[in-house]
Amino acid sequence: MKGWKNIFLLSFVICRFALPAEADPFSQLSRRETKIWTFLFSLGVAYSSDNRVRTLVQKNRTGGTDDLSRVVGNLGRGEVLFPLTGALYYYGKKTGKERLVRASRNALKNMLIAGGITVGTKWATGRARPLEKMGARHFHPFSHKDSFPSGDTAMAFAIASAYAQEYPHEVKALGYGLAVLVAYSRLNKDAHWASDTLTSAFLSTEVARWVRHHKKFPLLSFTDKTLFLTWAR
């Protein structure tokens, strides 16, 4: 029962970070300080519970959870998300759908930035994956070990955050719900610790908020017949 409480807490915290600023229940306080302290506290809880959460998830792993992980796992893969988002961006440009263009453009920015930070952090921390059976506290910086944070989870929350900023609440719930399932799929596959996925969710939602307020970023842009690099707004 205690393990399920930890998973519930982790899911609540991930959804908490995904809320837009205007829906933040702590908005009357300093949002920046509240967000940072909430994340640090939650990361501490997740880190201390990593082994228990892993044991619980693996104990309840079935053919059904493996099938689910295989399906939703593709929603965190860059080789799927980049072409998909690029196609949506191009479609929005051709059809004059400005919201789709903005969402897709920001999704590409989010994935590039969050992905870069994730790769650098993996290399710098060198955390062993659960399936390597070295324990949740094994870190070997600047090695081939790359558990922390979760790249797939970062990609899923990066794209979900971009479309959530432009589309109705129903789309937000679907996007973040799928992102949470991607995070779960990484736990189910024994590829990541709970604290890996929590960190990725926080990272990508913060990157998305930063991108939305910093309009210029080098990005591929389209004309009718040409693909070129420009400062995208």
Secondary structure: elements and pairs:
Elements: H1 2-18, H2 31-59, H3 63-73, H4 78-95, H5 98-125, H6 151-166, H7 169-188, H8 194-213, E1 217-222, E2 227-232
Antiparallel strand pairs: 1-2
Helix pairs in contact: 1-2, 1-8, 2-8, 3-7, 4-5, 5-6, 5-8, 6-7, 6-8, 7-8
Describe the protein.
This protein has 233 residues and is mainly alpha-helical. The chain has eight helices and two strands; from the N terminus they run ααααααααββ. It has helices at residues 2-18, 31-59, 63-73, 78-95, 98-125, 151-166, 169-188, 194-213, and strands spanning 217-222, 227-232. A hairpin with a 4-residue loop joins strand 1 (217-222) and strand 2 (227-232). It is globular, with a radius of gyration of 18 Å.
Give the ordered list of helices and strands.
HHHHHHHHEE
Task: Report the sheet with the most strands, covering strand number, pairing sense and barrel closure.
Answer: 2 strands, antiparallel
Helix content: 55-70%
Radius of gyration: 18 Å
Overall structural class, as computed from helix and strand content, comes to mainly alpha
Strand order of the largest sheet: 1-2
Given the C-alpha coordinates, what overall shape results? globular
Could you name the ranges where pLDDT drops below 50 across 5 or more consecutive residues? Answer: 21-28, 220-233
Number of strands: 2
Strand content: 5-15%
Number of helices: 8
> Whole-Å distance between the termini?
49 Å
